[in-house]
Description:
CATH superfamily: Spore Coat Polysaccharide Biosynthesis Protein SpsA, Chain A
Number of domains: 1
Oligomer: single chain
CATH architecture: Alpha-Beta Complex
Number of strands: 9
Strand content: 15-25%
Radius of gyration: 18 Å
CATH class: Alpha Beta
Order of helices and strands: EHEHEHEEHEHEEHHEHH
Amino acid sequence: MMPSSPFVSVIIPVYNGDRYLSEAIESVLQQTYQSFEVIVVDDGSTDNTATVAQQFGDTIRYLYQENGGTAAARNTGIQMAQGDFLAFLDADDLWLEHKLAVQVRAFAEQPTLDLVSGQVEQFFSPDLPPDVQATLHCPSDPIPGCIPSALLIKRQAFDRVGNFSTVWKVAEFPDWYARATETGLVTHTLADVVAKRRIHATNKGIQHKQTAQLEYVRILKAALDRKRANQSSHEPTH
């Protein structure tokens, strides 16, 4: 039976994110559900990220490490995590204040679930010049949140899938989600908007668009190869 107020570990990886980090942390601290810890993993930032994080004092756990990429930072946070559930928030995104509450309730109502997501709103960062906004796509309607900032997952379920792969520079989450699907996790997507994704000039997917496209192709091929290998291992021998 799931405890009535399960403890959630919230992991925020950040690299040179001093501009948005404070807003991200505040959006966690303002949750209506309050049984959580916040772990900020500074992935070798050279800006004022450390100063911003340390202003929150004991309300968060802060760790600095040499730059190793988003996957490495998330994995470090997972190693530190004490919760039965894991949640992730990119340092440039925001949570709505009911995010954890509605997801924890979903787990209570359907104990067999492994992962709960929700809807995501996207918004142009106020510091993004209008001429740049005009070149980017920002859907006005919420979309199903297949991004780390929208998820809540049982720690045991995450461990069945395994850590984020540090092989990928941009597409570490699509790779992880492909493996999660193969593992057979029981997932559910809520109708509630749970997170807001900030579109700004230094989004990883915008800065490294070509790299992302190449990695998506490699991830798809790797997933197909695993599927074929799994099918071959289950074929009857004569």
